[in-house]
Amino acid sequence: FNAAKDAPAYTVINTFSESELHRLFRELGEEPRSAAVARAIVAARTQGPIETTGALAAIVAGVCRGDIKAKARIFQALRIAVNGELAALSQTLEAVPQLLRPGGRFAVISYHSLEDRLVKQAFVRLSETTGHGSRLLPGEKHVPKTMERLTRKPVRPSPAEEERNPRARSARLRVAEKL
Fold first, then answer.
1. Domain around 45
2. Element (H or E) spanning 34, and its range?
3. What is the C-alpha separation between 155 and 162, in angstroms, rounded?
4. Where are the extended beta strands (E) located within 57-132?
5. Which GO terms of type biological process are on file (predicted)?
6. pLDDT per residue over 123-157, tens digit each?
7. Are the beta carbons of 81 and 1 closer than 8 angstroms?
8. Alpha-carbon distance 156 to 96, whole Å?
């Protein structure tokens, strides 16, 4: 979705093809009806550009009747694409371990599954020894693990915390320590 990065959401909604919108909503919003939403957006554009978030929300609501989270997933996908959020997170996950001293801890709070998946994969990769110098893979270098995962599973907010702070309900905390 490099085309969406640095482009306003207006441009994405009004210029992306149906297949590009479908892919964006499916992959970044994890929206089950991404194809139908993309089709409806392209159809609505024949009447003129989609000018407001309200207009976009109405299109999504028309396709996803009864699914109150569909709008959130569509707007999430747009936000992630336009802001380049996953690319920024990936760059951070690569850079921070090199900045830590031994014993330094790297804690990441993610708020949706796409972010959490990237964090988990990075922490697993950093906490594994690679390349065993076997005779079957002689060219592979031995790279010792650089981090130790302190949380195998993400730490979730307690019911009491969710009660005090409803926005915390989707938060997942993962922590690793530099070796």
1. 9-83
2. helix 34-45
3. 13
4. 105-110
5. rRNA base methylation
6. 999 998 776 556 666 666 667 889 999 999 999 99
7. yes
8. 23
